[in-house]
Specification:
By secondary structure, this protein is mainly alpha-helical. The chain is built from 19 helices and no strands.
């Protein structure tokens, strides 16, 4: 039986507004991300390669869909813009530099390019650009169709690595899908028939992954290169990309459906998945040094178990307190006071709660 965390007697407005389902999804997704990265160099073991292929079909699309869903209210207001800077832009710069330092100490090679994301930081860059584009997608009549078209067309061009363009355009449909979702769509996935269907879909997906992983190039699930770079013509590449988008969307829905929608022992950890995402890469780089002794079934199982523990620990309050300065930096000192366009002073608290008719009288 899954242990649950009792709700506080008088929850804060922030805690009350959080959907346990989304936090649970984020926690379980980061477990997949961390474990997937830990077995990435162990793919000479057939089972590890199949699991890696299966997880990579949907683990980042899952994060991106949830990010899109949580970005539905994004605007170009001053407050939102500041959160974008402190939550994505500043951590991107800090971790882009941090992940470049080991190369310098180990190999005497220091390369820092803020326009060309290195290692895990591509997600921060892409999310920054996706979030900026939110108001545009919300004005279009067929946003998902257009986003899919952009994704497929991006595969026909040799896009540069700057701004993580291949992934930014290729994975764009998942972000737009998240923008289009509404609470009632998530409510559908909470139903019993959806949970049963989701479990069946994931089992079928895992079986298919074990059957085809040797016949599908890994680059298709990484979204890093154009069709020609992977070695196929544009017609074939477009069909494969469309299949990857469809498979990712189905598996994302299935995974959300089987995720507990109630508060659990790990619900609170789901609010801190960015810590686990940005910090686990350093541990992965250390684990790579023991590659030769881990390329076996026991080593793969050990790395998967270690990934679960590592992801969990990196989401805990002590780690959050220790690294808050980097993941959620407070740079309020760098901003001016919030002000309304045209210099109009903000309304008082009393004005803010008064109905418009009262304010106009």
């Amino acid at each position: 039986m899954t242990a649950t965390v009792p709700a506080p007697a008088m929850p804060t407005s922030t805690a009350a507004a959080r959907d346990p389902l989304l936090d649970n999804v984020k926690y379980l997704a980061i477990v997949l991300v961390v474990s997937g990265h830990l077995i990435e160099n162990l793919r000479d073991v057939p089972a590890a390669h199949a699991l890696y292929f299966f997880v990579y079909l949907f683990h980042m699309p899952l994060f991106i869909v949830v990010s899109g869903y949580l970005s539905r209210n994004f605007t170009f207001s001053a407050g939102k813009a500041r959160k974008l800077i402190t939550g994505l832009a500043v951590p991107y710069v800090l971790f882009e530099v941090a992940y470049s330092l080991p190369r310098y100490f180990l190999y005497g090679k220091l390369e820092i390019s803020l326009m060309d994301p290195y290692y895990l930081t591509w997600f921060l860059m892409s999310l920054f650009l996706w979030r900026l584009s939110t108001p545009v997608w919300q004005q279009l009549r067929w946003p998902l169709t257009i986003a899919v078209g952009v994704s497929l067309l991006s595969g026909t061009s040799g896009l540069p690595d700057e701004l993580s363009m291949n992934r930014t355009f290729g994975l764009l449909p998942f972000y737009v899908l998240g923008l289009m979702l509404r609470p009632e769509h998530l409510d559908l996935l909470r139903r019993k028939w959806a949970r049963v269907t989701g479990a069946v879909v994931l089992v079928i997906g895992l079986c298919v992954a074990f059957a085809v992983h040797d016949h599908v190039k890994t680059e298709w699930i990484r979204w890093r290169h154009a069709n020609a770079q992977i070695g196929v013509d544009d017609v074939t590449g477009t069909l494969i990309r469309l299949a990857m988008l469809a498979a990712g969307a189905v598996l994302v829905a299935a995974f959300i459906a089987i995720t507990p929608s109630r508060r659990t022992w790990f619900t609170g950890l789901g609010a801190a998945t960015m810590y686990a995402y940005l910090l686990h890469g350093f541990v992965v780089k250390v684990a790579e040094r023991f590659h030769s002794s881990l390329v076996n079934p026991v080593g793969v199982a050990a790395m998967i178990a270690f990934g679960v523990v590592l992801a969990t620990v990196l989401c805990t309050p002590p780690v959050r307190r220790l690294f808050k300065w980097a993941v959620e930096p407070d740079i309020s000192w760098a901003f001016t006071k919030l002000r309304r366009p045209g210099g109009t002073p903000p309304r008082s608290r009393e004005q803010a709660v008064m109905p418009k008719s009262s304010q106009m009288s």
